[in-house]
Amino acid sequence: MTFSEKDIITYDNFLSAEDFKSVSDYLKRPKWKWGHGSFSEGGYEFWIMDLMTEYFFTNKLLNIIIEKTGQDYFLSRCYCNGHTYGTAGTFHQDCLDSDGRTVLLYANDTWKQQWGGKTVFDIDGKYHYNEFVSNSIVIFPGVIPHRAETTTRDFTGLRKTVAWKLKLKAS
Question: Alpha-carbon Rg of the chain, whole angstroms?
Fold first, then answer.
């Protein structure tokens, strides 16, 4: 199966203000670990927070994803990536199955375009850039190679994306 830009879907203002604040509060906890990475072509380590035991992410927010996208999914993983300046990801695929989906929630409270940090997709050698927009999600087939673009020197914090690795349920 071939995929195109049309298979990369963005939803702005995805969560209610209350739920997005809860995400922000969760991600301020001291549960970050160093050493995560997408090392298919080298790459740099970056931060990760495992969220698989967090009901809020694996049930409440997953159900919002299911409701708003109109798709039903099995959850395989849920975590948050954290990037600082210079820790770009490398192109990788999240799965090799055409039923696999990745959902990324852009989880920083505020974001300025000049900070970089886009998600970059490689579709048949052509790059598609998804802007980092707070409280938006991008959902895409996990077989599409993608990476996190590094942030610029102007950004001195942690670029945070919550990732849900999903598989479509058969209809």
Answer: 15
